[in-house]
Amino acid sequence: MAFQIWAIFKLLVLFLKELVVSTIAVVRQIIRPRLLVRPGIFAYQTELETDWEVTLLACLITLTPGTLTLEVSNDQRTLYIHAMDIQDVEQLSKQIKGTFERAIMEVTRS
């Protein structure tokens, strides 16, 4: 039980960190005299299995400035995400997998 509370706390702190970092990135783009973004939509393959896990991931992505979950496939393995600035889809996917997805698994699979 204590481990799960710690995992929930870590997920909350991670989300707050990502919220601040992405907010700063969005504000930087807004105040620039010339917009230098490459918006786009990409398919993200997840290892999460339950409805709750996938829903939580989709919500965390949507609540983070600059990204929005548009759709979840019927098999719940693919999320279609719109990002304000996509430099490298693979790097963005690794970031989501290494942060939100990993933290969600720590909470739900402990």
Task: Output the keywords.
110 residues; alpha+beta; 3-stranded antiparallel β-sheet; 3 helices; globular; transport
Mean pLDDT: 94
Please count the helical segments: 3
Low-confidence runs of at least 5 consecutive residues = none
Terminal Cα span = 9 Å
Query: What is the share of helical residues?
Result: 55-70%
Bulk shape: globular
The secondary-structure element order is: HEHEEH
Beta-strand segment tally: 3
Spatial ordering of strands, largest sheet: 1-3-2
Number of domains: 1
Helix vs. strand class: alpha+beta
Q: Kindly provide the radius of gyration, computed on alpha-carbon positions and rounded to a whole number of angstroms.
A: 15 Å
* Share of β-strand residues: 15-25%
What's the story with the biggest beta sheet? 3 strands, antiparallel
Family: Belongs to the CPA3 antiporters (TC 2.A.63) subunit E family.
InterPro entries: Cation_antiport_E
Keywords: Antiport, Cell membrane, Membrane, Transmembrane, Transmembrane helix, Transport
Organism: Paenibacillus eucommiae
Topology:
Blueprint: H1 2-31, E1 40-45, H2 51-63, E2 67-72, E3 78-83, H3 89-108
Antiparallel strand pairs: 1-3, 2-3
Helix pairs in contact: 1-3, 2-3
